[in-house]
Design a protein that fits this description.
Blueprint lengths: L1 E5 L1 H27 L2 H9 L2 H27 L6 E6 L4 E6 L3 E2 H26 L2 H13 L1 H9 L7 E5 L4 E10 L5
């Protein structure tokens, strides 16, 4: 098996470097369309305790979205999913305990960034809501480790069998084995 993973700490650092430019671009687009006012309005309208609760809720939902996407894309039973928190790197995680196709793994890796990051940013750009934009920007950055995983899997055929790494960001890629039902 080929190891296509990095430490959680390295994934967190890479996340900022990789998706920081995208967040800057999205922020610039929002400011160009709507100005800085909606950001200031968002901070004044929403109590900080609510914002903290939304952040914690979003973090939990991010990990649950990985599991749901893997369940739907690969048919993995709930009993073979593990959600947890790595205290050493302050990183929440979702882990599939069984192999799946690289295609299904990619779907699971991308889903939280799209659902919690890019879609709220698109909505915010359309309606000019600073709160939604801040939420989307934060969760776009939070998907940086997932973007790294997608990068690590470049060149891996969709039908190749992969196994989620139990402690690191990424996976193991099986030799030449392929899954016939998900390619």
């Amino acid at each position: 098996m080929e190891d296509r993973s990095v430490s959680m700490g390295k994934a967190n650092v890479w996340a900022l470097a990789a998706l920081g430019p995208l967040v800057a671009l999205l922020t610039a687009a929002f400011v160009w369309l709507h100005g800085w006012g909606p950001f200031a309005d968002a901070g004044g309208e929403v109590p900080w305790l609510f914002m903290l609760a939304a952040l914690i809720f979003g973090i939990v939902v991010h990990e649950v979205l990985h599991a749901v996407a893997w369940k739907l894309a690969a048919g993995i039973p709930w009993a073979d999913m593990k959600l947890g928190f790595q205290w050493k790197t302050l990183t929440p995680y979702a882990h599939a305990r069984v192999p799946m196709s690289a295609r299904a793994y990619r779907i699971g890796a991308a889903t939280p960034g799209v659902v919690l990051g890019l879609i709220p940013c698109a909505v915010a750009l359309a309606i000019g809501d600073g709160g939604w934009m801040l939420f989307g920007l934060l969760f776009t950055l939070a998907a940086g480790g997932d973007a790294l995983i997608l990068w690590l899997l470049r060149g891996v055929a969709p039908g190749r069998l992969v196994e989620d790494h139990p402690t690191r960001a990424g996976c193991y890629v099986a030799g030449d084995a392929a899954m016939s039902d998900e390619g």
